[in-house]
Sequence to fold (131 residues):
Amino acid sequence: MAANHSSLGLEASLSTVEQLLDDVSSALLAGEPLVLEAASTSLRQAMVDMARVVPAATGLKSLDANMRLRLAKISLTLTQQRESLIRRAVVVDRTLVTVLPQAQSLATYSGGVKAAAYRGGSARIYAAVAT
Fold:
């Protein structure tokens, strides 16, 4: 009876994880960062919950072929999603560099940005020190 209960719990966990993987994939394709964050957080928790259900003593060897296949598919999908996120991060970084170029580095004691900030603010006393 305990094995059957564990099997039902694992079945429910697998179904939840598979649905959340689909949600993460959809959010990735749609380019919706807030939806992606929510789906990823839910997926992370579902994966933790599923790990608790897998029998620790016997591990994956005790599972039937269908469940092992589903777990393998989940693993593959997670790998693909991770790679997609890495590619998207590179694209975003490159776009940000194009839109917001890096400020030129100034010499250490030149009257740079900090000195200009002090001149207009309430801390005028520091303006002489900064320049």
In short: The radius of gyration is 26 Å. The CA atoms of residues 25 and 81 lie 7 Å apart. The helical segments are 2-30, 33-53, 65-99, 113-120, 127-130.
